[in-house]
């Protein structure tokens, strides 16, 4: 039951998790908020059992928002039976309310909710009424997710080849990566729970220990940070969790991977994280590849429209994908390309330097290799192309047909 949750590329800053989706202030939503506790715990438990990919506050916020809209059309607070007319009106309204991806996020959760009502016997209507509603939902013409990344015209003729590796080869390589050791160390530190702020990041009192679990020496400061930013040597100075770059990178990746669940004031290891800690070797490859995919994405999101203002996410992604095609000389990539349009970041030394600092951070986790050439570890080509290649319209060829059949579809043909 996996469903990718891409973010719109043109958003400078993604909305906080708890605020995604249309804002609804209505009597209908207030009624739903009173009713949702009667069914939410069972729905959350069902989602965990089914490995559904939305958890915690996001799950609650999306289903509450959807049912709140429905209640405005239906004029009652029944949440275990939905009539088709009000449901159809809700979908039509939400289609034109806010962003396409927010609508798809909500309906993705509602699809799980509808399945939950049916399979657990919670549905409050007749079988025929459920079939009518389910059929309408399945036949609804949904828009496509807006792409997370814009295409990369410079690589339209390129092909990334994902090699066929044995299970032992993949396990050996991934087990030696710094990211593998640090994920395990951080989850062990997390323990059963930790306090978080209203911004869904670790409470300041936890940051120093959390950073240490990730091999970062960090020191809190109460006043202003030094003029010019962090010192070039010594511990990282921080005023909050957002001030420790590696901690922020891992936190977002672990939350995005569903290994950490968030409530209003605490963070918990998910059932998947608990299982991983009990037997790390059993799921190490899957966990590290998922974390790697999120980290590749974190540095590749475009922070603005590249045709209005130069940005770094596009350039970082370009470098990653070009290195995935084949290892490429570092000096060639670092050298500004002359004769390009003014808005092309490949011609700007300052933009290139920022992109390289991002690549160096990925190198510190073992996700790229930087020597005389920039390259991608073969065992990590899978998560990289899964995250970046399709939306970038870069062709992929899989040496192992099982990879292509099991996990990758609708890529540009190789």
Automatic annotation (TrEMBL):
Disordered as annotated region, ranges: 1-20
Name of the protein this chain belongs to: DUF1819 family protein
Organism, as annotated: Paeniglutamicibacter psychrophenolicus
């Amino acid at each position: 039951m996996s469903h990718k949750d891409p973010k719109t590329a043109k958003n400078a800053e993604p909305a906080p998790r708890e605020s995604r989706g249309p804002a609804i202030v209505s009597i209908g939503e207030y009624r739903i908020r009173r009713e949702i506790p009667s069914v939410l715990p069972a729905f959350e438990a069902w989602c965990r059992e089914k490995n559904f990919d939305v958890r915690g506050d996001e799950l609650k916020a999306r289903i509450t928002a959807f049912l709140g809209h429905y209640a405005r059309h239906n004029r009652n607070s029944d949440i275990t039976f939905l009539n088709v007319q009000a449901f159809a009106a809700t979908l039509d309204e939400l289609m034109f309310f806010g962003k396409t991806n927010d609508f798809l996020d909500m309906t993705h959760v509602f699809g799980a909710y509808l399945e939950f009502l049916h399979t657990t016997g919670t549905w409050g209507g007749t079988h025929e009424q459920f079939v009518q509603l389910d059929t309408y939902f399945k036949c609804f013409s949904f828009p496509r997710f807006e792409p997370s990344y814009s295409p990369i015209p410079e690589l339209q003729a390129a092909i990334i080849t994902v090699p066929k590796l044995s299970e032992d080869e993949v396990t050996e390589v991934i087990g030696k990566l710094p990211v593998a050791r640090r994920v395990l160390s951080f989850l062990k530190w997390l323990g059963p729970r930790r306090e978080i702020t209203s911004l869904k990041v670790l409470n300041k009192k936890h940051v120093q220990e959390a950073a240490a679990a990730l091999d970062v020496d960090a020191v809190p400061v109460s006043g202003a940070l030094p003029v010019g930013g962090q010192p070039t040597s010594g511990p990282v100075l921080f005023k909050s969790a957002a001030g420790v770059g590696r901690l922020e990178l891992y936190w977002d990746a672990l939350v995005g991977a569903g290994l950490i669940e968030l409530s209003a004031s605490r963070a918990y290891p998910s059932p998947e994280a608990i299982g991983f800690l009990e037997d790390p070797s059993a799921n190490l490859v899957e966990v590290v590849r998922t974390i790697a995919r999120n980290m590749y994405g974190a540095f590749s999101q475009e922070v603005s429209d590249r045709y209005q203002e130069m940005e770094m996410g596009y350039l970082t992604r370009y470098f990653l994908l070009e290195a995935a095609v084949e290892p490429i000389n570092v000096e060639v990539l670092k050298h500004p390309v002359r004769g390009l349009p003014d808005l092309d970041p490949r011609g700007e030394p300052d933009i290139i330097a920022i992109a390289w600092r991002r690549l160096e951070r990925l190198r510190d986790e073992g996700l790229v290799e930087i020597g005389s050439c920039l390259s991608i570890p073969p065992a990590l080509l899978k998560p990289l192309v899964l995250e970046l290649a399709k939306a970038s319209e870069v062709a992929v060829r899989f040496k192992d047909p099982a990879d292509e059949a099991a996990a990758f579809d609708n890529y540009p043909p190789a």
